[in-house]
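Re: [ENG-882] Designed sequences occasionally contain unexpected residues at chain ends

Forwarding the minimal case from QA. Structure tokens:
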């Protein structure tokens, strides 16, 4: 998995002239299907695929929609926060959660204000279908949809009748 990640980061850095000083959790290439399969295999939970695609990685995901207006250092911040939440909370195998200090540490860059990370995590959780708030400063991604998704699906079903 890490070899795939480094290979992708080197290719991406050369092609787009990215200047990230380190490979951070937020730079995980979750939009690449081979990497998704590797991550899901490592986590042992294939049911997380819809959560990864809908909330973080897909072209029409919630994170990418929130990132549409971000520029400069904040470009892609919601996708990076979503990736960090996924990797820090380690899916559904444990009761772990990604807490804001861990997410800040995982994504911290010299020019990035840490309050931006907090704001991005809150905005993503408010919009996401599979990311839940845990306690006062924690987030967890799971394969069970949140109430927002269930209500949205019901409304869509009712309007379709």
């Amino acid at each position: 998995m890490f070899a795939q990640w480094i290979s992708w980061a080197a290719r991406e850095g050369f092609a787009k002239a990215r200047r990230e000083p380190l490979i951070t959790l937020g730079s995980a290439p979750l939009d690449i299907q081979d990497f998704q399969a590797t991550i899901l295999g490592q986590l042992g939970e294939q049911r997380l695929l819809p959560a990864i695609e809908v909330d973080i990685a897909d072209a029409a995901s919630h994170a990418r929609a929130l990132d549409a207006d971000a520029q400069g250092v904040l470009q892609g911040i919601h996708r990076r926060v979503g990736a960090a939440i996924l990797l820090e909370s380690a899916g559904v195998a444990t009761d772990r959660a990604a807490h804001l200090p861990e997410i800040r540490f995982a994504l911290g860059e010299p020019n990035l204000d840490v309050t931006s990370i907090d704001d991005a995590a809150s905005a993503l959780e408010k919009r996401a279908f599979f990311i839940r708030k845990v306690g006062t400063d924690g987030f967890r991604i799971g394969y069970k949809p949140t109430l927002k998704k269930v209500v949205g699906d019901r409304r869509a079903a009712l309007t379709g009748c």
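QA comment: On inspection the terminal residues look reasonable. The beta strands are 98-99, 131-134, 138-141. Proposing we downgrade this to a documentation issue.
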